[in-house]
Amino acid sequence: MAHVELSVSEPFAGADRDAPSDPEGSLRRWGRAAAGANEPCLVIDGKFEIVAISAPACRLLGFPDEESAVGQSVRSGVIPLVDFTSPPVPLPDGDLEKIPLRLAYTSGRLARGLLRVQTATEVHTIDAVSTPLFEGDQPVGSLTFFSRI
């Protein structure tokens, strides 16, 4: 019969345990992962600015390339979000606080919802799943994965 032993250790044990917290550390790490991802995803910070975006997300959201998206504020309409009416109308500013990207950050919890995006050639619906990114106990941004419906 096989014998298995388990041990439990302190979380984050080691040299980094007492290191001072870097409020941008989590965003930089997740930003590098998102920028190189084969899945459509992006990272935003607490100011609602795009920190990193994958190439598939650029195509899905209508950006020509990653450089044109990074640093842009989602509040500025850089992602052309529209409502679910026909014909579609640009999403009002008040509703931007309710989209998963922002809601995950403000609530500190997982958020999911449908978005409609109007690119130069079409309007399409996207499922968005967002998770908050933390540095210690404080949310510093969110990571969102997209899937076209």
UniProtKB/TrEMBL annotation:
InterPro entries: PAS, PAS-like_dom_sf
Superkingdom as given in the UniProt entry: Bacteria
Disordered: annotated span: 1-27
Protein name as annotated: PAS domain-containing protein
Organism: Rugosimonospora acidiphila
